[in-house]
Amino acid sequence: MLVLLVALLFGAASAEAMSVRFISPGHPEETYWADVSRAMQNAADDLGIDLQVDYAGRDLLREVDLVRDVVRQPLAARPDYLILAGEKRVLAQQLQLAESAGIPAFVTFNAPSAEERKQLGAPRERFRHWLGSLIPQAELAGYLTAKQLIDRAHRAGLADAQGRLQLLAIGGDRVTDSSVRRNAGLKQALDEHPEVLLHQMVYAEWRRDKAEGQMEHLLRRYPATRLVWAGNDEMAFGAMAATARSGRTPGRDVLFSGINASTEAMHAVIDGRLTALAGGHYLQGAWALVMLHDYHHGRDFADSEGLEMVRPLFRLFTPAGAREFLRSQGRALDFRRHSLALNPQKQCYVFQVNYGQEAGG
């Protein structure tokens, strides 16, 4: 009877679907952001949500302008909700615009910086239309990929005559929250392993081509490098290409780590070119839609989860886990099963997909 009642209520409410606009920082052809949008569309289809994705093309001014475009629209054309990623510290500007128009906004992918926090406070305080946030524990991704890289290097006997492991690091950028957190995880791992010598950290703006050019110069400067930690898979692949051209074999002479769950990255784990890979956080936009769906239908996530959620959304992939991930890609998740509004017996969200080993508790 309860299930029937819920179905009837949602059938009546679905006459006019809730609408959501996602402001993506990336390009539509970027593998990661394409995966994010695809997962969000799957969730939207399952939950009866009208979703629109706008891409800022890695242009921080465009990220703000896209929100400005939304708030300038007539009331009838505005979405019910905004989802904001806020790369490069634009969240404060985005949330201020949404607040001025009275459009509820949800933040995911990146938390506000300390400076932004001074302006914003906490969700639903100064900005009552900032509903909440879901942020991945990105430090874990940086930490666990670095730890696995170091462990595998020791097993492979890649230390130099002084017992040191020589490492290069390629970060995304200096200011985006997810990049800063991943880099902090790397630093924690290095603090635990004084035998690892970090020669230099560079920033490739998440780009394969830029990482490739940087790696060419770095290998000439530090020819004894045996480890390369990268803040995403694209930068790892760029660094691999430069390494292969130098006559070294990725996965044997130089070990690489990366972050993201792209098909290319999974194959690189399977064939041994990537020694450590963490991913799965591409689903966080879809999880945000689940929570907004429930909020829209009277089940406020604040009651069970609080307003600012930090979750271990990354997984550390083994070759077996990568194979399972690739086999399962054709089977779309049923996001309705994760909704508390559609499953009143559930008391909290469990946002996990079991591919390989979980990266964090």
Offer a concise description of the structure:
The chain has 361 residues and is an alpha/beta fold. The protein has helices at residues 2-13, 31-47, 60-71, 91-101, 114-120, 138-155, 177-192, 208-221, 233-245, 263-271, 284-296, 302-305, 319-328, and strands at 19-24, 50-55, 81-84, 105-108, 130-136, 165-171, 196-203, 227-230, 255-259, 276-279, 308-311, 315-316, 357-358. Strand 4 (105-108), helix 5 (114-120) and strand 5 form a beta-alpha-beta unit.
3D architecture notes:
By secondary structure, the chain is of the alpha/beta class. The protein folds into two domains: 2-136 and 281-314 and 332-358, Rossmann fold; 139-279, Rossmann fold, CATH 3.40.50. 43% of the residues lie in helices and 17% in strands. The protein contains 13 helices and 13 strands. It has helices spanning 2-13, 31-47, 60-71, 91-101, 114-120, 138-155, 177-192, 208-221, 233-245, 263-271, 284-296, 302-305, 319-328; strands at 19-24, 50-55, 81-84, 105-108, 130-136, 165-171, 196-203, 227-230, 255-259, 276-279, 308-311, 315-316, 357-358. The strands form two sheets. The chain has a seven-stranded mixed sheet, sandwiched between helices. β8, α9 and β9 (255-259) form a beta-alpha-beta unit. α2 runs parallel beside α11 (284-296), α6 (138-155) packs parallel to α7 (177-192) and α10 (263-271) runs antiparallel to α13 (319-328). The longest helix is centred in the middle third of the chain and has 18 residues, at 138-155. The protein starts with a helix and ends with a strand. Residues 1-14 and 356-361 have low confidence and may be disordered.
